[in-house]
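With this grant's support, we have settled on a layout for protein records. An illustrative entry appears below exactly as we store it:
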Amino acid sequence: MLETFLLFILAGCILGTIAGLTPGLHVNTIAMFVLAFAAHGDLPSVLLIASMSVVQTFVDFVPSVLLGAPSNETFLSVLPGHRMLLQGKGLFAIQLTIIGGLAAGLMAVAAGPLFAMFLRKGEAFFPAAIPFVLGTILLMMAIGEKRKNMLLGIAVILLSGLLGVAVLRGSANVANALFCLMSGFFGASGLIKSVWEKQKLCEQKTTAKPIGKARAAKQGCVALFGGALVALMPAISCSEAAFVIRKIVGKIRTSDYLILLGGINTSNMILSFFTLFALGKTRTGSAVAMKQLLDIGTEQLLFIAAACLIGIGFGAIATVMLARAALRRIHLLDYKKINAAILVFLTAAVFAFSGTAGLLAFGSATAIGLLTVCSGVRRTNCMAFLIIPTLLFYLGV
């Protein structure tokens, strides 16, 4: 039986690596495929989903940082990660996300039982706080812009919000809507900028200064808080949590921000399994599949925690190996042609997954993203595409 469990966990790690490297392919899709073939009470399949989901939170950052192809969870990493890549520090950028995932992931497994107890005590309070939290985020986005760009920044917030409402809550029925919008706001707009500016990569450094253990632990704790915030309030995404923390903390180093992003993604995924155990509620697509496969009790949760630990180790090692292999010769390639090819690939992926309606949403999001690129307005203001529709939902509008 143990050998079967380990075999399924290893299969999950491999599938998570494939999903992380492939823009547009998410573990949620694979989890639903597994669900179609697994029987109720199939613990090995649940362990496969757990390890796969954790591994993807690590590997996701390779295409996000190196190719500018964002996923649902990593789109904010494109901005600082791309800057570091152009400075020859692409490997260091990815290593920082790995450090965050390792630190916060291990903490999430250790703190999971206490988190589950806390959830049961305060379950009724958290949904009521969501509108206040989202409204505060929008206000911080508006006033956080430089004075000369404030009006244009508000315009970007409104345009992004209206597009989000139209696509996510309207009658457009766009399949994979989040992928279309985020690929436009944070992927295609940056890729177009890279093509027209003819950016070139310098030779990438294959070694990086290790950061101190105390600093890694500190940022891991902050990331764990962010991951818990997302698990507590399902309307808030990992990137929104990172944005909130950045505003609360104030000025934060780029390196610390990448640690934060990596840690929030991994810890949130793990804590979503503890949320399923404590409340029977799902916060991620992986947890949805788990709920349909198995009633999670204490014994099952222990096996899931073990699968998460294996996934953390596998994900960290696989990500750094993949990044090293990709960066070894990337500076010798024509970066303009690479970006153009990725742009074509993203556009084709949007059409394949979402059709003509998806292309329209993708093109509109790209146009708004280009507005920020050309004007100097912060591209994080485009996050309003997700915040405003969610706020309206919780206000009953």
Summary: The chain has a mean pLDDT of 83. The chain has one domain: 2-394. Residues 2-394 form one domain.
